[in-house]
Amino acid sequence: MTRKHGARAALVSGGVILIAATGLCRLASAQRRAIIDTSRSLHCRLRSVDLSDVRWTDGFWKQKFDLVESVTIPKMWEYFNRNDQTEMGHHWINFRIAAGLQAGPWKGRSWHDGDFYKWLEAVAYVYDVTGDPTLDRQMDEVIDVIGRAQQPDGYLSTQIIVQKLGRFQNIHHHELYNMGHLMTAACIHHRMTGKDNFLRIARKTGDYLFETFKTRRPELAPFGFNPSNIMGAVELYRTTGDVKYLELANIFIDNRGT
Fold first, then answer.
1. Where are the beta strands (DSSP E) in the chain?
2. Sign of the dihedral through C-alpha 141, 142, 148, 153
3. What is the pTM of this model?
4. Which of 6, 82, 133, 235 is the most buried (most CB within 10 A)?
5. Helix, strand or coil for residue 73?
6. What CA–CA distance (Å, rounded) separates 170 from 223?
7. Which of 7, 137, 125 is nearest to 64 (CA)?
8. 46-77 burial, b if ≥16 CB within 10 A, otherwise e?
């Protein structure tokens, strides 16, 4: 592994990178493109390093990174575009249908929107390391369609939109799971690219969720049974500084607790 800004990183056995707590918290402003942005977390003791500041040059993790870049990302994109008789691999097509760009039925599993956002998040990480303009263009094209599929009030779930189902009627529709991963992926994309096209979509979603859940209606309490909505709201707060999203995360936590 090669290191830029070597004073910031300590290489320890097993290939684990840690940032020493002593003195290095002052360098928080240079940590905005790490996997987790705790640059403004006052009580943080350990901080991760920006992805663009390190390179794997050989060994196990170099092989895994190369596999993700050259095989996993393109093969999953191919998989997401499968328009066959199966319900699997229909993720991207569902967004195009919800955006009105393609005709056809919704197919798949209720959580497939969230899985697609996780793929997009991975693309953003790889782009930050490689600077591949093809990945940047691909993300912009995908984000444009996601924005077209989003409803005017910020709601977004392809299953509900395409099938014209009622919102938050069935916990197994995984609406919060999906929108939670949308918020996280958008924050990562913003931090890795500097663009706000996906972040604007995420903020509309976060605003919608805040307005929907702020009154703590009992019938909505069971819906956040996966943690991704909490994680997404916290990451949206870290990225924008808008305390409303931190309050939203606490609402989700309190709902789960009651």
1. 2-3, 10-12, 16-18, 54-55
2. negative
3. 0.85
4. 235
5. helix
6. 8
7. 125
8. ebbbbbebbebeeeeeeeebeeebeeebeebe
